[in-house]
Amino acid sequence: TGSQIEVLLGENVFWAALIMGVLAFVFFIFMIKNITIRGNEYAQLNDDDYYEINNAGNLFWFAQQVNEGGEAGRYLNAILKQDIDLEGRPWTPIGTTGGTTSQSFRGIFDGNGKTIRGLYVDAQRSALGFFGEVRKGVVKDFTIYGDVFLNGKYNYIGGVIGSACGIQGDNGSTISGITSYVNVTLGEGTH
């Protein structure tokens, strides 16, 4: 009869809405988890005052701390504990240069014999590479693969380090044990 059809139709609409709601909730949770995985993740500080880098999120977090951490950020130390895949996500170089906004890296980055893959830098500024500027810092012992792209007239471009200031020793930077397979591509009008 008509009333039985209305009840069945009403129950089906209820169950369909409930299932759609559950699916939407599961999708939402998946997206939040995915965003968290791909975001910057706090790196643990060990007893030797080195941030332990175990994944891409830790490395993005470390770069942000150096670049936005003021005077203290310049002197942070890190050690790679795992091979890292940056997955071609846009990378902001560790340490910057540029007059009053300079935030050069002056800490220790120990690659610990690990490999970094998927570096992707595409920016319109000076001091580009995995590191932008290293001044009185130590960068050592890792292999890196990726790409750096530049269009425009900027200075200090490299695969690993855009600018390493000073001479080795007390007043300079120490760069050692790095193998680079980073392609640096310069567009028209670039020098």
The whole-angstrom Rg is: 24 Å
Provide the low-confidence segments as ranges. 28-38
Structural category is alpha/beta
The portion of residues assigned to helices is 25-40%
Coarse morphology: globular
List keywords for this structure.
single chain, 191 residues, 7-stranded mixed β-sheet, 3 helices, 9 strands, globular
Short description:
With 191 residues, this protein is an alpha/beta fold. The protein contains 3 helices and 9 strands; from the N terminus they run αββααβββββββ.
Walk me through the topology.
Elements: H1 2-38, E1 44-45, E2 51-53, H2 56-68, H3 70-74, E3 78-80, E4 84-85, E5 108-122, E6 131-135, E7 138-150, E8 161-165, E9 174-186
Structure description:
The protein is of the alpha/beta class. The chain has 3 helices and 9 strands. It has helices at about 1-40, 55-70, 70-75; strands spanning about 45, 50-55, 80, 85, 110-120, 130-135, 140-150, 160-165, 175-185. Strands 1, 2, 3, 4, 5, 7 and 9 form a 7-stranded mixed beta sheet that branches. Strand 1 (about 45) and strand 2 form a beta hairpin. The protein is globular, with a radius of gyration of 24 Å.
